[in-house]
What we know:
Mean pLDDT: 80
Number of strands: 7
Structural class: alpha/beta
Distance between the termini: 52 Å
Strand content: 5-15%
Number of helices: 13
Largest sheet: 7 strands, mixed
Shape: elongated
Low-confidence stretches: 1-18, 158-168
Helix content: 40-55%
Order of helices and strands: HHHHHHHHEHEEEHHEHEHE
Amino acid sequence: MARSGILAYPVAMPIETAIPDELRQMAEVHLRRSFPATVGELIVPTSPFDSPDAECLAYLAVHRTELLAWLEAVLALPPEEGDWPQNPLPLLRLAGRRWIQRQNQFLVLDVATDAKLDELLRRFAADFRAALHSAPETLPNALRRLRFSLAEAIRQPGQAASPPAVVCAEYSLSSQLRILGLSIAELAEPILDLGCGEHAELVRELQRQGKQAFGIDRVAGRIPGVMSADWFAKNFGNDTWGTIVSHLGFSLQFLHQHLQPGGDGARYAHKYMEILRSLKTGGIFVYAPGLPFVEDFLPAAQYRVIRRGVEGLPVNEDLSALYRRALGTDPFYTCRIERIG
């Protein structure tokens, strides 16, 4: 099975330490080979991830002094200050968020989760430093604690230690446009992709074609015009956007929270109405799946609702059946909301 991991231990060196790139390469090989592929694998008693090979341990021993100096400098910085390689923690936290979202897109990734990731990464950096002070052979204990801490950090209240996987994927540009029933030429500017994904394919293509396009996603990379944040952190404004799109993003999360006992549906409903108010007159919000429990009650004098069936919407079949039973209708369609008043 292909592994998708996070950087498990700090390997980014300040240039002045003259640590060669071999250590980073060793870490990446170790991660591809052994980082847990699922949340369940985080909590097994022993894991290949806990045991770096002899070559890596020998390398740590040889460069112990430089590594210790680097770790001291990293731990002296606030979590958000600096950037790789001077401070690898923000990059590591983003990598952790991406790994978590790949496991289950419905797991909550908020400010509290970020704080937990910051704490466990700083604790690991301190454990790594302690291992170097004593002996690199003690590093497996630190790696094991990191696994268990990550599992605990993403565990939701009342949830099993190993939650079910609800895999989050990033879809091709052509697939997104097909499902949303859109062509690039028809999109009025400015354009916002809500939940644009790590690579923001649609945003980048729109920008290449000269469109004024932006994106927001909690795991987005550093891409011009793209905000790496939760959509609740963004004020969408009033009468601002010509087009807002969200492919298996905002509406799927809203649907899940609406049906989840104790879910955050009310918060999503407020944000949904904020999004509609942010449209210019004639602007559109296009998304899939649909939200019939909200769309049916929108004021007809202000919003035109157009639903469009779509074949091959890539949604988990178990979730699909659950939503149909709960709603009494099929929400797996594309919806276009046009602001008309």
